[in-house]
Amino acid sequence: MSPPDHCPALVLNADFRPLSYFPLSLWPWQEVVKAVFLDRVNILAEYDRVVRSPNFEMRLPSVISLKDYVPTARRPAFTRFNVFLRDRFVCQYCGQQFPTPELTFDHVVPRSRGGKTTWQNVVTACSACNLRKGSRLPDQCGMMPLRRPHQPSSLLLQEHGRAFPPNFLHESWRDFLYWDTELDPF
Fold first, then answer.
1. Mean predicted lDDT score pLDDT of the chain
2. 3-class SS of residue 137
3. Are 40 and 11 in contact (CB under 8 A)?
4. What is the torsional sign of CA 75, 151, 13, 167?
5. pLDDT confidence of 74, banded at 50, 70, 90?
6. Contact, 137 vs 110, CB < 8 A?
7. Cis before 23 (ω within 30)
8. How many other C-beta atoms lie within 10 A of the C-beta of residue 147?
């Protein structure tokens, strides 16, 4: 039998949508049990796995929904990961999709030329393209971004995140997740 650590719960908002798709909103079993006891969540599905204390026993929840709706931020935080997600992990200069460790972000107008670190001036770039562009302006090096950088909405980031299903998806999560892929991840 697998240890309880391998039994995360999918966390849904009160509207039954995941709090996030990428990374997928998962809580460790300890947090889930605590939330159940504090009556903050509804249990929608369970694992076969049982946890016990001297006077209590419960099946570990595999899908929970929050009792109180948590509104999503209208404006997502500017982070490296969110830039990658906005650009779908695609280098905005060469068009190749890369794993996260090989990606960087590039200032379209370099900081050395007064460019700011904002949604409107930063794009995803692979290391090779970032080095090749250097501190030049796009028209000086012939490297125009494929898409104009912009501030995404939280909804756009959620939609983009749905295109990247995680490696592990428990069968009890199937009815609560909808992926934008051609292949069925289950």
1. 89
2. coil
3. no
4. negative
5. confident
6. yes
7. yes
8. 13
